[in-house]
């Protein structure tokens, strides 16, 4: 068996070659390819379900169960979702080729700055076979070759999805190697991918904190981190408390396991007596375990205490910690210390408080009188997202097709020299 | 003496705190600060020259001489350059606060995407004390705190420049810690800075290949690589040979030691007999050592041979390697194998050849009938540059003030929930 570095280099070289054809493909050709990929997945249901059944059996034999096992399950309905997702991306506008700037230099040279694909995009992900198709679709639409590395538990399912996608690409006249599912799912294979600087122009990890940490520490290829969201809702003295309740409940319970769910509630001291008993009851009514700092527990005695380290923790569950703060300044101070730069929200009808919160908080998204749950590529109108960046470099917040592109300059001269 | 990680963390914490004041500073306040920094450097000439004399003495004692020693020398004229550079940056438009996108979501939420500072920008650089002021000026203008880590040889000079800059900041009412020259110039200190993910939002290395490689390998903080420029000039069959000669000479000899100088000349076979003897003589007349592949040497017998590895080498000197290629396709193929993605040029009057070259080459900048030397922040009209990115993530090509910013979203709702 070849060593992982050689294996990954071979994948990389094929991806690089395919990326050149993709970079030159027209919007129409790429849309047609995505439609063909969707049709191929649609037509490969039997193969997909059979491969997935094997994965599920193996997972069960290895003791994987519950939510983890469910995440890797394919059903006819989930395959519908994959097919629909590819068709939706097919219909999105092509981000490639846009002129993002252009001017004439003083010497007469005409300069154009234009959007081009990154080249080869690698995605490392866990357990959900739909990510194979979602990521491949976004990469192909944005003109990039995709290197997809899922988890060992889902390898058969991912390969089956990959085979269908590749068949679709070939049918549409684009190289099959524009989408490659990496078969080497060893730890050494992952390390080889994380350090394949010759081949990988961008790596996006999609998974839990362990995966994100490993990528952040070991990757030498360029990475965009889809990191933790320890999101806060701050209820100001001038909040409409009905809005505050609706936003808090929505931010916490609508989908508690995702990164844009709220984890912490900050309440201004002047409205704590009125708001805390009300929101504690409402949250409890939605099955949320509410914990509080000393001041909150003095107002609502039933609350569980909060350990210091919890202020930095992303529960990703029906748990919310409540803290009483002194005004916008107190909220900003707390968020600066404990926020992860994902999404922060204020509920207020006070102009100055809203302005101060927006200026004082540094996050990918800041919400004024809206739920943290709106930080999302679909909600923002990007049509689809490959993740939500919590880093500041390259792209911040929801990553749509544009996040998978870069820019380059072309200068048109007439024998110009300096 | 505290350990380097503790030391760097203390610098980082002070920079983070200062960055908040800078992020909120108006364009007027930042311009005034840059003017005050310029005046302070201007007024600190004696201290600067004295500190530099110590550095020069120590360097001489340690056997540093020639170009390396000259690079760290400060003179009255070079201080004029530093002062003028700061004043020039003071006058540039503020990149912060621009709304780079804005729309209304279907549910009525108003979304704004706006340009904000990155936060803390670290620069690791070698030997030139003017980089201390240049980098500090660009960081402050773009609202970022700067952590500046020069080489041990230049520490006294850098600290003297830093002291003047900090005095200027304070006089203008901005925190002195917006600019910090790091005194720990040990290897361990560098490693601590390269891995200070809590404090550093962007690190830019400015220096030779050794520094760049070390940063690329060891940094876990976000980095923009100002990498090698193995730039090519391709002379097409349909080139105006006068233009071809002027562009080749300019690209090679105007400033051979910089990354946008041309290192390789590719000549289409059909014009090689005519062009090669002429350009070889012209280059030799400018003191360039011309080397050639077998085909070139068959036409111009006097040329030295080219070792295989040289096709990947950046000479940064008055040396140029010449290769005969088969048309645009041959040029593209060679550049794909050996280019570094910096700048590639074609000389042609053929529309199809120009289009094919532009489509087939993937570089930060592609020149049609213009010298590679135009890839430059000043030439592009950015007013100043902190480097030239050869990576695809975040920013590609000359990095001006915008490259030191990121974007964030602010969403204005009215009690909106999902």
Question: Could you characterize what this model shows?
Answer:
The structure is a homodimer of 418-residue chains. The first copy, chain A, is α/β, with parallel strands linked by helices and 418 residues long. Chain A has 2 domains: 4-225 and 396-412, Aldehyde Dehydrogenase, Chain A, domain 1 (3-Layer(aba) Sandwich); 231-378, 3-Layer(aba) Sandwich (Aldehyde Dehydrogenase, Chain A, domain 2), CATH 3.40.309.10. Chain A is 45% helix and 21% strand. The first copy, chain A, is built from 15 helices and 16 strands. Chain A has helices at residues 4-24, 27-43, 45-61, 66-72, 76-90, 129-141, 155-171, 187-194, 209-218, 241-253, 269-285, 294-299, 327-338, 351-360, 377-380; strands at 99-104, 110-117, 120-125, 145-149, 179-181, 202-206, 231-235, 262-268, 289-292, 304-305, 319-325, 343-347, 365-370, 387-389, 397-399, 405-416. In chain A, the strands form 4 sheets. A 7-stranded parallel beta sheet of chain A has the order 10-9-11-8-7-12-13, with helices on both faces. In chain A, strands 5-4-3-6 form a 4-stranded parallel beta sheet, with helices on both faces. In chain A, helix 2 (27-43) packs across helix 7, helix 3 (45-61) packs antiparallel against helix 7 and helix 6 packs parallel to helix 7 (155-171). Chain A is globular and about 65 Å long. The first copy, chain A, starts with a helix and ends with a strand. Strand 16 of chain A pairs parallel with strand 13 of chain B, so a sheet runs across the interface.
């Amino acid at each position: 068996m070849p060593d992982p570095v050689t294996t990954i280099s071979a994948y990389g070289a094929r991806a690089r070659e395919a990326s050149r054809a993709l970079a030159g493909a027209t919007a129409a050709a790429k849309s047609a390819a995505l439609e063909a990929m969707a049709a191929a997945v649609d037509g490969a249901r039997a193969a997909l379900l059979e491969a997935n059944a094997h994965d599920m059996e193996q997972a069960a034999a290895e003791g994987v169960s519950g939510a983890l096992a469910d995440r890797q399950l394919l059903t006819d309905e989930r395959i519908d979702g994959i097919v629909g997702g590819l068709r939706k991306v097919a219909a999105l506008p092509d981000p490639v080729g846009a002129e993002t700037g252009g001017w004439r230099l003083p010497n007469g040279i005409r300069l154009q700055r234009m959007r081009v694909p990154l080249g080869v995009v690698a995605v490392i992900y866990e357990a959900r076979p739909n990510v194979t198709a979602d990521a491949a679709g976004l990469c192909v639409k944005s003109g990039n070759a995709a290197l997809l590395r899922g988890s060992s538990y889902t390898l058969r399912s991912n390969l089956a999805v990959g085979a269908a996608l590749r068949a679709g690409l070939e049918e549409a006249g684009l190289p099959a190697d524009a989408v490659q599912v990496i078969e080497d799912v060893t730890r050494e294979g992952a390390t080889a991918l994380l350090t394949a600087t010759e081949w990988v122009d961008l790596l996006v990890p999609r998974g839990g904190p362990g995966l994100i940490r490993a990528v952040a520490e070991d990757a030498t290829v360029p990475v965009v981190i889809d990191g933790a969201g320890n999101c806060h809702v701050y209820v100001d003295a001038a909040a409409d408390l009905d809005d505050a309740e609706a936003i808090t409940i929505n931010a916490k319970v609508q989908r508690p396991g995702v990164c844009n769910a709220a984890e912490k509630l900050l309440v201004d001291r002047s409205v704590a007596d009125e708001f805390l008993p009300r929101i504690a009851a409402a949250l409890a009514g939605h099955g949320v375990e509410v914990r509080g700092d000393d001041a909150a527990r003095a107002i609502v005695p039933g609350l569980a205490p909060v350990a210091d380290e919890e202020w930095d923790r992303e529960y990703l569950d029906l748990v919310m910690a409540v803290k009483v703060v002194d005004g916008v300044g107190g909220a900003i101070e707390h968020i600066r210390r404990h926020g992860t730069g994902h999404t922060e929200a204020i509920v207020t009808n006070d102009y100055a408080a809203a302005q101060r919160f927006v200026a004082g908080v540094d996050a990918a998204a800041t919400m004024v009188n809206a739920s943290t749950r709106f930080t999302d590529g679909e909600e923002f109108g990007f049509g689809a997202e490959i993740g939500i960046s919590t880093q500041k470099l390259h792209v911040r917040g929801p990553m749509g097709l544009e996040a998978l592109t870069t820019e380059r300059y072309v200068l048109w001269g007439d024998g110009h020299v300096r």
